[in-house]
Structure formats: C-alpha cells, structure tokens
Amino acid sequence: MRRLDDADVPFLIGGAYAMALYTRIKRETKDFDIYVRAKDVDLILNLFRETGHRVKRTHPHWLAKIFCGEHLMDVIYRAGNGLCDVDDSWLERAQRREALGLPVRIAAPEELIWMKAYIMERERYDGADVAHLLLSCADRIDWKHLLARFGEDWRVLLSHLVLFGFIYPTERHRVPPAFVEKLCDWLRAEQILPETKRECRGTLLSRAQYLFDVEKHGFRDARLDARCQISAKDLGSWTADIPEESAARIPRTN
User: Fold this and answer.
1) Closest to 42 (Cα-Cα) out of 53, 28, 56
2) How far apart are CA 61 and CA 232, in angstroms?
3) Residues with Cβ < 8 Å from 122, sequence gap 6 or more?
4) pLDDT above 70 (res 8)
5) Which of 22, 87, 116, 179 could bridge to 126 as Cys pair (CB 3.0-4.6 Å)?
6) 3-state secondary structure of 247
7) Nearest-CA neighbor of 138 among 149, 128, 150, 146?
C-alpha cells in the first residue's frame, strides 16, 4: 500500500478486509484484495515487478495477481463476468478508513454489494456477504445509486433484498419499503411483456452452472453482450479454468 501511495496510484481496499471493517466478520485468507481502474493495472504490475515480486495477469479481462511467497494480492478491476468496471466513481465514493496502520480508501458498500451480488457459483456464493453488508450498512446506503449500478439487472438486486427479508425478518424495514415496492412493480409489469431475445443470463451469475443451457439448449450467452468487457478468447480461458469440483458436476449430454 505504501508503494502504491508513493507512486500516486489510486486503489481501494476490498475483499475480506473491507468486509471485516463494515460487518466485523473476520475471515482468514491468503490474499489481500485491492480494486483499481483497468488503466492502472500495467503500472501497478510494473511497480511490483521492479521490486522482485512475481506478477501475473491471471485472467486479463478482470484479474491480476502479485505474489509474495505463499501470500498474494489480488488486483481486481472488474467482475469475472465482464461487468462492474472499477471507474472513477468508485474512488470518489470510497470510505476513508485505516488499514494495517495506514490511511486508505475502502470500497463503498454499494459497490461491494454490486460486485458480490453476481457471484453464485457452486463452489462459492457471496449472498451471505450481501446480506451482512445490508444488515450493517442499510441505514447509509444510497439506494438510488445502488439501483443505477445494477441497471437492467435490477432483478438480481431484488432477489437479494427478498432473501434479506427472509434471513432477518425483524430487519426488513431497514430496506425502504418504497424501494422494494418499486422493484416489485417493475417485476409485475415485466411478467406480461414478451421477450424476444433467447439468451441465458445465468452465465453472469456462474461461469459453470449454465454452460449446459448455452451449449445444448441453444441459449445465447449473455456475456457476449457489448456491456460485458470480455473477449471470446478470455471467455474461453475463463471457462477452461473452472475448478474441477464444479466442472465434474456440470450436466453433459452425448
């Protein structure tokens, strides 16, 4: 963090460290997550390469890593599905906190919720993180901004709000009722509208569990939309890197 500060490279703290600051839930992890703008990644990797660290663009469309022995720092600039780009507004809306004795910027709750809401893999589901962030930060959340972040994917946000009310029945009121009603009105209106584009948006939630629908049922992969910053090459390598425990459970047909 000092090296990034000395080089005047903006970054945000995320991951388990940010979750602990907001929710007081601590998890021991082998890595340390920072969020940065995509345009700063090469500069960051070069800075650490110069100090003898091993660096790698693990998945060029969203993630790089900096290694230090058995530990590592994840350098994240968007989500694995090609959405949730880290932009200037992430930096502007960050929370000022202290981490490891240094003054830093922590990713705002709205951005953390946005990023985590799409993670619904068989081996990893971040819905509990979303629920805990809502529980801890509901009173300070900018709901208008959060909705704007999700955009056309507002159903994903609504699904987490529904689960929040199930998980914490006595805390339902902390999500503004008018906000939930607005999304429910959209849901009712959308139910009766015909949809002509036959695509599977499940691939935005899991890179493994909906491949069957794309490969065998003829659904278009929603990650091919222009709004997703992921190339066909990156999509192939991202799919090829699916953990074995998940790949083994993907339904296949002859």
Assistant:
1) 56
2) 11
3) 206, 208, 209, 245, 246, 249
4) yes
5) 116
6) helix
7) 146
pLDDT in tens, 92-130: 999 999 888 899 999 999 999 999 999 999 999 999 999
Burial of 127 (0-12, 13-18, 19+ CB in 10 A): middle
Contact 40, 70 (CB under 8 A): no
- The sign one gets for the Cα dihedral 178, 90, 55, 68 is negative
Residue ranges matching CATH 3.30.460.40 in the chain: 1-107
Phi and psi torsions of 121, nearest 5°: -80, 165
Q: Give CA–CA dist 89/163, Å, rounded.
A: 28
Q: Tell me the two tokens of residue 230.
A: 């992921």
Beta strands 199-200 and 95-99: pairing type?
A: unpaired
The domain 1-107 is classified under which CATH number: 2.40.50.140, 3.90.470.20, 3.40.50.920, 3.30.460.40?
A: 3.30.460.40
**Contact yes or no for 40/80 (Cβ under 8 A):** no
* pTM, entire model: 0.94
Tell me what pLDDT residue 191 has: 87
Question: Which tokens belong to 185?
Answer: 């009105």
Whether 36 contacts 10, CB under 8 Å: yes
